[in-house]
Amino acid sequence: MDNKPDCISRRDFIKIIGAGTAGAAIAAGMGGCDSQKKLPLFEEGPSGQMTYRTDPRSGNKMSLLGFGMMRLPLIQRRRGESLPDVNDIDQEAVNELVDYAIEHGVNVFHTAPMYGKGFSETATGEALSRHPRDKYYVATCLSSQRGPRTMEHAVSMYNNSFEYLKTDYIDYYFLHNLGSFEAFKSRFLDNGVLDFLFKEKEAGRIRNLGWSFHGEGDFFEWMAKEYPWDFTMINLNYLNWSRGDWRAGGGVTDVIAQWMYEVLAERNIPVWIMGPLMGGILARVHHKARELMMQYDQNASPASWGLRFAASLPNVVTVLSGMTFMDHLKENISTYSPLVPLREEEKNILVEQISQIAHQYRNINCTRCQYCTPCPYGIDIPGIFTHYNRCMNEGNYPEDRQSEDYRRARRAFLIGMDRSVPALRQANRCINCRLCVPNCPQRINIPQEMRRIDKFIEVLRQET
Question: Are residues 302 and 394 in the same domain?
Fold first, then answer.
């Protein structure tokens, strides 16, 4: 493998060129629908101010940057300490992030009952309730893929969201993580839950009703045409824009983002974007991709390329980013304040050249959503995948034994894994129980990837 310098991190990038010129990091989204109205391509304010899009259904003026409340800052604990049932979200830090976001024009906040080990809605409600209700739009969902698929369970989760978010109405409510007819039928049709939600919308407790998608193409097209959705949330980034086999780890799918976007555009259903940076993977691209990016723009971070790609589509209402640190928030705000749309040449670079490099050096498509956790055997699945991807992108993947850089890369991979993931939580602990597989929205074959990584680590450790 080539001996290349490490990939620059988002935090280091900001320090080098300043947050005011950096690009950003984002994650997920939804939309609204009205067959009579068309969304404007851009509605840009003066330099230094947030770009907004108008939801044609409600008329809401929504910030192009949406704050995803999935990866909230945590209280620091001892290394390796796992407290799955304890609320260890750093509320003071969350309040600071939300205050800064609202002050700088962000008005879309997206949470879910499953986020933050079940405490994200509470933290979000606490932070937002300190601001006037007309200063923000809050989105949450019905995460009923786990637990009993009964009306009682769904209504309880629904009512809890109002209590935790400290609100009398929810601006954007969506059916969470749908991918097949069978799941939709058992979760929302057979038990009458969908009828209940439409009645709640008529009553005004839900202002806009939509759904998020992970799954089968036939089902996606049917859903888009069968119901009067106000918005739809899809995974969209420059890697999955024109090809559907980009997912590593056995999560192959034939559903490409361009096709999904065009299906929704045909119905004039506004789109909320999730995964424009694949959970941060596209913020730390392979060094060969970074070098190509810098040939076209010395001042643009890899993250800003991905964020601008997603936001340059006219039917996109908001692009959600899961932001943990103030650096991330500031960088993201700067990217959309105002948005500078990608030129056609830049889009082609991403879709054709950068994507080709990414497919050659495949990452495991883990977005660190933590739906696979807690593992009953204590395995830190997101931590293992994150370290693997980081080493792949930074050139610390010891693949070619003949390379002059092999020994350095081997040492960096092994020491980095031990520092990132405690020994009792590494891949060799996986027993292939497969309890995690149905919960992964990216459809990664997690046990298969654990076996592959464990075998790779064992080979490295035996070589002296």
Answer: no
